[in-house]
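During data preparation, a discrete fold description was generated, as reproduced here:
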Amino acid sequence: MRGLERLGRVRLSASFYFRDFLYSEIGNFYGIPNIPDDPDLAIAAGRRLCADLLEPLRASFGGIAIRSAYRSPTLNAFGNEHGLSCARNEATYANHIWDRRDTDGHMGATASIVVPWFADRFEAGADWRSLAWWIHDHLPYDSLYFFPKLAAFNITWHERPTRRIDSYIAPRGCLTKPGMANHAGDHGDWYEGFPEPRGG
């Protein structure tokens, strides 16, 4: 328990501590500890996620809410086996499982977040693609995946980013990925009136 306390106090960036990323509804409900096997790797990946992606979002939009982030291999496997919206562990390494490298040996980290500034606008009819294109044009993300509730989305930092955007919100499917005609260039027409990027 004392070791978990110390881990929670580790500062990942100016605004975030590791404890911010340990909450899990699956863990709380089923009594499964959400503790990394390799804290050093989880910390290293989490620091890049925070510094490169979450801090600039916070600085630009005035705050973010973390819905789900780090998952231990044990917790994620339980979620997958019980149909709780968790992919197989092997597909989640260097993603929600921060303390495992992917099959190519690269590290990465994912957080599911809500941007309240945008959630209000989404509820009033804003298109999810406006935020997606803002992030695409301004931040070094690996992947984004948008969800209908609160316009929440997974945002991933990875050592070798693919820069792909998908969504469960209409129009569903892949918005962009390398090789698509819309991947390069400026998409500023989508996000007129958005804040200028800050931080990062």
